[in-house]
TrEMBL record:
GO MF annotation list: nucleoside triphosphate diphosphatase activity
Listed name of the protein: dCTP pyrophosphatase 1
Species whose genome carries this gene: Cucurbita argyrosperma subsp. sororia
Pfam families the record matches: MazG-like (PF12643)
Name of the encoding gene: Dctpp1
GO biological process: nucleoside triphosphate catabolic process
Length: 125
């Protein structure tokens, strides 16, 4: 992959949704893929990737947080499929002209109002 698309020294904390959006737009543009990136096509690709992500968990039963019993190869496969889902979601939002970060924060506020802490608080041990 070209160096301008991948900077291994960066951590996830350093990468914003806007940076992912911009890199994906450039990635598609320089390859002439924009013509194929309609909202419908991107959604169908996203659904396909969600299916691939689902297959990883399909026959595992319940999985512990942190995936303590997973091999390095299984974890890497999960990272790749989660990344595919994220990248298609970011690209879809961009093609639709939406600010995904703003929309997500707005949704968190709406959910906080819909599900107030007082209504769901339970006694802690």
């Amino acid at each position: 992959m070209e160096s301008r698309f991948y900077e291994p020294e960066k951590t996830a904390k350093d990468v914003s949704l806007h940076e992912l959006r911009d890199r994906l737009a450039e990635f598609a543009q320089v390859r002439g893929w924009e013509q194929y990136h309609s909202p419908r096509n991107l959604l169908l690709a996203l659904v396909g990737e969600v299916g691939e992500l689902s297959e990883i968990f399909q026959w595992k039963g319940e999985v512990e947080r942190g995936l303590p019993n997973w091999s390095a190869a299984e974890r890497e496969h999960l990272e790749e499929e989660l990344s595919d889902v994220l990248l298609y979601l970011v690209r879809l939002a961009d093609v639709c002209g939406l600010d995904l970060g703003h929309a997500a924060l707005s949704k968190i506020v709406k959910n906080a109002n819909k599900y107030p802490v007082a209504a769901f608080a339970r006694a802690l041990p």
